[in-house]
UniProtKB/TrEMBL annotation:
Keywords: Signal. Residues 1-20 form the signal peptide. InterPro entries: Ax21, Porin_dom_sf. Gene3D superfamilies: Porin. The keyword Signal applies. This is Ax21 family protein. The keyword rRNA-binding does not apply. It comes from Luteimonas granuli.
Amino acid sequence: MKRTLIAIAMAASVPFAANAAEGVSYNYVTAGYQASNGDVDADGYAARGSFAFHDNFHVFGGFGNQEIDHTPLDFDRYNIGVGYNLEIAPRTDLLARVAYQKLDGGRDLDFDGWSTEVGVRGLLARNFDGYALVGYEDYDGGIDGDFYGRLGANVNFNANWGVNGDVKFNGDVTEWFVGPRFTW
């Protein structure tokens, strides 16, 4: 009877024992150059980070500042959210994230919003992982919501240091980022 109860308990706990895919870390900080090209061209800097507080959950956030080309105008972008990752193969995770976002251009250009995205992230080689996500973001104040696609990759030089590159395709605007990444 005792063995049967232990076996049932172990079998019932298997779905909850998922981890992040082998070699994929959700603990990192990165900073670097960020640019937007489209209706308005802008460039600047950004800092991002993520912290895994459970095998399948992480919090993430970021800050960026960009100056619009040929103008004295700039804007800040903030986001903070929570993500869920589920191993679907030994080196691949299903990834789902939701975030609060803020776009602040000063004066009357202050918008709150949210985003959600889903996709995959996986270890493609010993020192190279990549991700592909589709998402939707929406802001208040008359900015229409939009679907987007995001592709990114991390090349690791050693266990902690690497380079991150990220491209986001959002309608007529393409945003990209490149910078060093510290992972633990």
